[in-house]
Amino acid sequence: MWTSLDIFAQQTSNFALFFLLPLLQLIVFYLQTYVDVLRLASLV
After folding, report:
1. What would the DSSP string read from start to end of 16-30?
2. Nearest to residue 34, comparing CAs of 42, 22, 19, 20?
3. CA atoms 6, 4, 17, 30: torsion sign
């Protein structure tokens, strides 16, 4: 039997899965791009 707290926890985990993970991947992508730009700038 579900309590409201269990349902809230499940919704929160679903939110984290669908929104925070893609956001984290996007942040990692931007960081990698930034590092690559710094490497290119150091070569010039």
Report:
1. IIIIIHHHHHHHHHH
2. 42
3. negative
**CA atoms of 21 and 39, how far apart (whole Å):** 27
pLDDT of residue 1: 59
User: Could you tell me how far CA 18 lies from the centroid of its own chain?
Assistant: 9
> Looking at the 3D structure of the chain, how many domains does it have?
1
Q: What whole-number distance in Å separates Cα of residue 7 and Cα of residue 35?
A: 41
Q: What's the domain range around 36?
A: 1-43
- Mean pLDDT, each 10-residue run in order, the chain (44 residues): 79 83 94 96 89
End-to-end CA distance of the chain: 64
